[in-house]
Design a protein that fits this description.
The chain has 177 residues and is an all-alpha fold. The protein is built from 6 helices and no strands. It starts with a helix and ends with a helix.
């Protein structure tokens, strides 16, 4: 059990390090475009022994499906915002949808032990990411509290990828009894 917890922590830490490095070393402000690809690579590499298909095929499939998930998520945020007439709720729903979609992508090549429960956990963790980012922005010193989600997506992407990485890792390593 302790080994599983350590593997989940290793995945979370790898997601955090990767996305922080991507955003804070990017000089052209394009990290939001390639961070989903890095996220897929980190999830696969930190859980490589749990991949049930050819590892290179899993990596290729994950990278190919990351781009459509990214664009579907962006369009979903716009659509949800128009439908519910509330930008924050639209972002929450779009975040939860994209987390669920990435969980489904990862379930293609990982053995997911509790599919429905972990899909729900991942979607909820993705949905709370905007609130976590807002909390960090408002209540932790040293983070620019005047930057909005659209103006500075780095903190949102960091929170989202760490939380969704947690949800996917739980799906890979924890079995519901």
């Amino acid at each position: 059990m302790m080994a599983k917890v350590l593997r989940i922590l290793a995945t979370i830490i790898a997601c955090l390090i990767t996305v922080v490095c991507a955003f804070y070393t990017d000089k052209n402000n394009q990290a939001a475009l390639y961070s989903p690809f890095l996220f897929i690579v980190v999830i696969i590499l930190t859980n490589l022994d749990q991949v049930r298909v050819n590892k290179l095929k899993a990596l290729g499939l994950g990278l190919m499906l990351a781009l459509p998930v990214f664009f579907i998520s962006a369009l979903a945020v716009v659509a949800f915002t128009k439908i519910v007439k509330d930008a924050q709720l639209g972002i929450v729903l779009g975040s939860a949808l994209s987390a669920g979609l990435l969980f489904l992508v990862n379930s293609l090549y990982f053995n997911i032990r509790s599919f429905k429960a972990c899909l729900a956990i991942t979607a909820v963790l993705g949905g709370i990411a905007p609130f976590v980012a807002q909390f960090f922005r408002l209540y932790l010193p040293g983070i620019n509290s005047s930057a909005g989600l659209v103006e500075d997506p780095a903190l949102f992407f960091i929170c989202w990828q760490v939380l969704v990485g947690l949800g996917i890792s739980i799906g890979i390593w924890v079995k519901a009894d």
